[in-house]
Write a structure and sequence with these properties.
Length: about 280
């Protein structure tokens, strides 16, 4: 209330000042472009931009399992911001522009390539199941896999042949995607190792950014414990969404620990402002 009082008294035009609670009312005033399982995309402030909003929803097994993990969206927004900024610093083009608030970031609007690109360093998850391999076995070299983004089909694995034959991406697009994915893997594996985490595998999405005559392939979506497997180097404890998929408990605690080790845990924890916020 102190904050509210002083903000009101500073306002030159009281009639323009109004209050709302949380972010829901402000969000509903914007045009919603797309709603996914863990994020919403809204129209951005300028043409060619979007606002990416991180929800607390967690889903697994193609939406068969669902829960709300309080604070997850706030943590993923921060973690993804941090990783996208670090990647941009080493020359990886990304859709990220800047974080706007606890749950939102401004991004460049891109045409999403409908392929999930998975990079694996250690056997886990669907690879262990598909080939009957023991989870935790290091791979002789990093492996890149492609999955066609389709909820109805359950994101089936596809090859480069399918991708180019059906026109989801060109051979040149895939060359760019593959080399970016491997550079991202090299960089992030080192970054996470530096904070005692093994980057077991992760999923990336890429988009086409149109700039005049030029088309660039850029990293899109998010990189967070929702889309990575991260195991503690000492204990092998899982610090990612497998805690939710496999009912291991303390999902939020694990995401917080990843943020803490990255040095970006929001002050006072990952909670949103729940009180009144001033809008002018
Ligand atoms: P997988 O072992 O289940 O194929 O998952 C590989 C990686 O991809 C793992 O880090 C989790 C991530 N992933 C997603 O981000 N979204 C998905 O829908 C799936 C299935 C996996």
């Amino acid at each position: 209330m102190l904050y509210l009082g002083s903000a009101l008294s500073r306002s030159p035009n009281r009639s323009r000042v109004f209050l709302f609670f949380g972010t829901d009312i402000a969000m509903s005033r914007r045009r919603r472009i797309y709603e996914g399982k863990a994020k919403v995309l809204y129209e951005g402030p300028e043409p060619g931009t979007l606002v990416q909003y991180f929800k607390d929803d967690a889903t697994a097994f193609n939406n068969k399992k669902h829960a709300i993990i309080t604070g997850k969206g706030v943590l993923n927004n921060r973690i993804s911001e941090y990783l996208m900024v670090r990647l941009a610093e080493i020359g990886v083009p990304t859709h990220f522009v800047r974080r706007l608030n606890m749950r939102e970031q401004l991004i460049r609007e891109v045409e999403i390539i409908p392929i999930e690109v998975v990079v694996r360093n250690v056997v886990a998850g669907s690879l262990a199941k598909r080939l009957g391999l023991e989870e935790g076995t290091p791979l002789p070299r990093s492996i890149v896999e492609y999955y066609y983004k389709s909820d109805e089909l359950g994101d089936p694995m596809v090859s480069e042949e399918h991708i180019t034959a059906f026109g989801w991406a060109s051979a040149q697009d895939l060359d760019d995607v593959m080399s970016l994915a491997l550079r991202i893997n090299d960089y992030l594996s080192g970054l996470f190792l530096g904070i005692g985490l093994r980057l077991v595998d992760f999923k990336l999405e890429f988009g086409r950014l149109y700039e005049g005559e030029q088309i660039y392939i850029v990293l899109a979506d998010e990189i967070s414990p929702d889309s990575c497997r991260l195991w503690d180097v000492e204990t092998n404890e899982k610090m990612d969404k497998d805690r939710f998929r496999r009912d291991l408990g303390n999902v939020e605690g694990a995401y917080q620990e990843v943020a803490r080790r990255l040095g970006i845990l929001p002050e006072g924890g990952p909670k949103d402002l729940k009180g009144p916020t001033l809008m002018q």
